[in-house]
Design goal:
The protein is α/β, with parallel strands linked by helices. Helix content is 40%, strand content 17%. It folds into 2 domains: 7-240, Rossmann fold, CATH 3.40.50; 245-370, no CATH class. It has helices at 22-33, 49-64, 75-78, 89-99, 116-119, 140-155, 175-179, 182-187, 220-225, 228-232, 245-252, 262-275, 305-329, 337-340, 346-349, 360-370, and strands at residues 7-8, 15-16, 38-43, 104-109, 121-127, 132-138, 163-168, 193-199, 203-206, 212-219, 237-240, 278-279, 333-334.
Length: 375
Amino acid sequence: MADQQVQVSKVLPFPKRIIADPDVCDKVDGLWSHDKKFLILSGPPGVGKTRSAEDYIYKKVEQYSPSTAVEQARVSSLFPDFRTKVYSSTEISIKLAESGVKFVWDLAVLHPQYSYEDLIRGYKVFSLEKSSTLKVREGLLGFMARVVEELEKSLGNDEAPKGVLILDEINRAPIGQLFGEAIYALDRRGAETTTPYELEGHGCTLSIPSSLMILGTMNSIDRATSGFDYALRRRFANVSVTPSLKAVEDVWSSLDPKIQSIGPKLFSIVKSLVVESEQIGTIPKEELVLGHAYFIPPSAKSKNASATIKWLVFSYLYQVFPTLLDYLEQGLLEFTRSDIHKIPMGEILIGEVDLYQVDETQMEDEFLRFFDVEL
């Protein structure tokens, strides 16, 4: 998304963040209050799902630890060596008290190689002088659960989240293998479940405290096409993050008056192309609408009208077009020739014109002619 303006707070030790979509944060809080502790933010590409998850973290830190910078409340910042050292409960408690932190968080970007050992616990190789040895160490969720348990002991369990773990791109990893028996612990908060690994001083058991929220993100296309949603749907509450014309209008309204209408118009044109096309697959067309981030220039590119248009043209041709082509190639949508000619330079999308044979200035001129704008 475009860079957001910040307001410097007189109270907080860090710039006050502008929340991109307060409604998303409110929905997450509402679901938590109804005992939904495992949530997914889903939506089309470019709607700001990760940004919304980060906004939620910011709000919680501001609410519960207002004198603490957001990064200082991150578990991997408080305990940078937790993957190689086994912390005792006393050590965790002392560190939390010293830091004054009353809420903790962390983030992991998942991928196919992200494993149970990375998330829960497992063997790690330690090099000795002339050999190596294997020792059991904690993963991010396994260790964070113990940190939140200590917060509950010191602060009491008032049903507010005391920790949030963001699992970005949650569907990119094999979820069943990733969580293993921890799924039982997630379902029955506070109950102990047995893991295959014994952690020094803590045995084989694992429990997930009731005040730890798991907040995942995923593209709605992936949610609809993968087996993930069907296998684990009961355990997840889904919060939709949708494309926002208002987000585009808010940014473009502050730019050069000559070009203020172009960004919102292009967003609407591309949206219409998708929702008015023929749906081939099972994914609703509304879930294929591209997000507003594709149409919001960074502040550095909005200094003058020419730089802004140049950025938008390149975003349109090299980001929007490839995504639309993916929809075509995957058989999700089908565009007619009349549909294509309703969008700028649509002949490039269907291959009638080679993008790499078109001069950069020529592309910008064609773009401006489409919107009847002169610079």
